[in-house]
Amino acid sequence: MTTEPEPTRPAPLPPFYRRLRWIAVPVFRAWFGMRGLNVDRVPPTGPVILASNHVAFSDPPMIGAVVERTVNCLARDTLFQKPGLGWLVRTLQAVPVDRQNGGAGLKAILDRLTAGGCVVLFPEGTRSPDGSLQPAKAGVGLTVIKSKAPVVPVRIFGAFEAYGRHRLLPRPGKITIKFGRPLLFAALRAEAGTCSKPRLKVIYQQIADEIMEALAAMDASEEVSKFP
Length: 228
Known about the structure:
Elements: H1 15-32, E1 35-37, E2 48-52, H2 59-66, E3 71-72, E4 74-76, H3 85-91, E5 95-97, H4 102-114, E6 118-121, H5 139-147, E7 151-157, H6 159-163, E8 176-179, H7 186-192, H8 197-216
Parallel strand pairs: 1-8, 2-6, 2-7, 3-6, 4-5
Antiparallel strand pairs: 7-8
Helix pairs in contact: 1-2, 5-8
């Protein structure tokens, strides 16, 4: 008699991270009507890049609230040096990034992915000024090529209206976080191993653009699964 293999499960969340998530989920649901769609498209284990549009300060914690595994967001390295705040960002598994030293920042991200982490990246680089998708920067393509991790597109709907950069304080709204199918970029990754440097730069931007195309193709309708 054969038995079915048990489904792969994410590693247990760190205790404080788990407790904070218990608080955040009902608050986000009550205030923002938060829902997550197709969350099961995020691999439960192994390295993965969550490539999201960026419209509000609330984007990183909301993505972390709906994903069942530990999510690593980026934070300025100077925050890690502040009393209290430094302890918090470390406990929340944030990735320290030195904005003055792009190489060090990339290494910190790649180290986390190499260790099997789930890292949130914002291809646009900064929050959208009007809620619409902005052109992606080539840096996300560089990270994709260097990491070998699959990329799950993430589109956040409603967060700009609730807490965009034009608002000092958040207001109640309806926020949907939708996850797309993983992108592997196998052909471009294979080409990147042997191509010229000028072509490599084109590949970085092509990957960034294809991620934004995947985000643009997503809408807020429910397809497969819903965050319970």
